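Hallway conversation turned thread

IA: we were arguing at lunch whether anyone had actually written out glycine dehydrogenase (aminomethyl-transferring) end to end. Turns out nobody had. So, for the record, here is the sequence (948 residues) and right after it the structure tokens. Reply here if something looks off.
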Amino acid sequence: MALTPVSDGSNYVARHLGPNRSEAEQMLSVVGYDSLDALIDAALPSAIRQDSAPQLPPALGEHEAQHRLHELAAKNVVKKSFYGQGFSDTITPPVIRRGVIEDAGWYTAYTPYQPEISQGRLEALLNFQTMIQELTGLPIANASLLDEASAVAEAVGLMSRAVKKGRKVVLDSRLHPQVLAVAAERARAIELEVEITDVTSGLVGEDLVGVVIAYPGTEGDIVDPSPIIEEIHTRGGLAAVASDPLSLLLLKSPGSLGADIVVGNSQRFGVPLFFGGPHAAYIAVTEKLKRQIPGRIVGVSKDAEGRPAYRLALQTREQHIRRERATSNICTAQALLAVAASMYAVYHGPEGLKTIAERVHELAVRFADAVGTVKHENFFDTVAVEVPGRAAEVVEAAGEAGYLLRVIDADTVGVSFGESATEEDVNRLASFFSAEVSGEAAPSSRLPEGLRRDEPALSHPIFSSVHSETQMMRYIRMLGDKDLALDRTMIPLGSCTMKLNPTAGLETITWPGFANIHPYAPESDTAGWRELIEQLEEWLAQVTGYAKVSIQPNAGSQGELAGLLAIRRYHVANGDSERDVCLIPASAHGTNAASAVLANLRVVVVATDKDGSVDLNDLDEKIATHGERLAAIMITYPSTHGVFEDSVRDVCSKVHAAGGQVYIDGANMNAMAGLAKPGEFGGDVSHLNLHKTFTIPHGGGGPGVGPVAVAAHLVDYLPSDPLGTDPSTELEVGRGVPITATRYGSAGVLQIPWSYLAMTGADGQANATAHAILGANYLAKRLNDAFPVLYTGKSGLVGHECIIDLRPLTDASGVTAADVCKRLVDFGFHAPTLAFPVAGTLMVEPTESEDLGELERFVEAMLTIRAEIQEIIDGAVAYEDSVIHHAPYTAHSVSSDEWNYSFSREKAAWPVQALRRAKYFPPVRRIDDAYGDRNLVCSCPPPEAFEL
């Protein structure tokens, strides 16, 4: 196809691409090519060019795409959801829906690796952690996990690491079915023996690493977990408790009952059902387990002026650093949804939340009193009604009347009450069971007397400081104003692809026809959702060149794990169970190694050449050494060094010849979509980051979706439906395992990549990729004299990102790559990727969405910083006295009466003229990372801490 700069502003592609025709031609001239086709022919090895364009439908306009999404939403049937099973009806306060979930300042923010420009989202996530700590009664919580099922799996993994002598885990049969399915198979993958039993009858057997207890159970029953906790402790194991956070407003906290770990899902704190996700799961642990907790932790440190400041704590735990020694492969969170849940707690406060919990419980009790024949005496919000032989009949009748109930078994119906339930609903529900509700006074509690909460919940002042919508609106805005997100500036993060997120798709995620569908609703209610998902999976298969795609994995890390499990199970099914070695290049994403370990594969590192490509000689040696045990190689393409490797087909052929499979990490698909297909040039499996190439926004570190794409021989090993398996027995090796709690994972944001593909089509995909490569090469060319580009490929070109080398400048001046990151804050930029994959460097990725003016603004900032470095090299100023060393600068610091620097306030805060028109000030000075790790504080500090 002909790649042409776009000038017509009437279609989505023109709106998505930053450079117009004139700007693209200027950029091509600087790079040294007269057309996009010539540039791509020079940059992209001919050996990987796709055989044919993806078979995508003709591109739609934004209005047409939204009209089509309206049609799909109308095919779904929205019922009043009383289904439960881990997903509850809730009411999203409009101020949070519009102020957080639908606000670009929140949804386009990136993971807070640069904390000085992330104080708003870090504070909101710290609120989330504090909320979870107080509700669970444990001192350490992380900033969220992906879903409840995988959170339980993470808890099991944590227990197995902490209790090294045991090889068996006990799962309470009262856990939700999807939780049992995912956790059991994840445990078996790391060679733990799994026993599923009703733990209230006691524990049997030895060699236990721990137990996971439901509190409440999936049928709503509440049992005191403390005897089981005491028993596992006497055996040297650990106790994890899975809890509904709303119930913990009324029930004793698991921590007070002795739990070591508490996990669950915060979805019912104001986050829509979203057909299964994204939702923010949580995990909290005791003090002794804090350094083994998976995921991210927000901690409190101090800045250069001694003021409290937030940062990600214990960052050596990050997976790109610890690799195969990582505590988990989770390198992200459900940040946007955790923010929403925390804001829900701030908005309602402890009394408001308790009122919601009491009202839910009262309605459930009133209903139970009416129907009479209930299975469990004690419950919180879920009533299991006994209807011998009539469960399906009752649920069908309720469905016809617009109510979604749950068939627990042939004789039992589950009715779970949520926030929007009313007295009228109680009357209607009772009628399905041929019962009537008494008009008497409020019923008595059905909570166990000895388990009623007598400890305070949400005592921190932040949860009692907002009393009106006006206050809430301003609090959300105040936090948002502290941050830099894509709505303010280019985020030139290499390997992370911070591109335009189409509003036409984003706007639709909260439409009731999509957002209010329960993930376990019958297929008759979900025709629109399933049609959208089937189309998206087919389009992604077309773009990647694979036979089939599953969108179930709800993060890139989960997609990696799903792909590696598919490979592992494929080998075992073929009688090659000894194939357990995974080759991983030294430059690979850190999650690759961590995912391999979780798939029970042994990591062997392959060296990289000086140009950043896989060292073929070392690859040959590793294959010769491990050939009989070789399961797979994991490679990233283009390479993590930002170049297209000419040898990729050779790498694939060598591994295939040895009987291994090729996993191609799809994180850099933004350099290939529409031009090359990994499934055609040697890949057997890839995962994709829909929150990168396919425009789901990063949301401050989540949501993400990480579909897995496979060749024909691996189709049977794609993730299976968690409700279609029997967790009590190990799945036969000839099929895939469930990865997340629901069949379609985080379905609730799939309208976004659907819209992106629908509005770009094959030509638009190719043009987007070509412009991404153009932008990267333009920056590489403009910056190379000042900051040499470390790696280039064919014709001296890079892929969609480039690595600039600061090491010679560091040796000459003392200025580090981290110093440059902090100084860029003063120019209003998020920093590039720091020290990955090479220490002392910055990886820059502009994406196709940035126009020439924004690219030049970044160039100006970098060249100004280079001149400041030269001042140090020339001896005009010492490094310790330089403007770079002390960056960044707050509004308070440059307006203070005290200014003890040799450079001017103007040089510090307004180093270039354009900043006089639009200036971002960070809320804190440079943060002391070491102090934060030495003094780990992971809950909100008191307000007076900020009065320095």
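OS: looked through it. The two ends are 62 Å apart (CA to CA).
IA: good, adding that to the notes. Confidence is low (pLDDT under 50) at residues 944-948.
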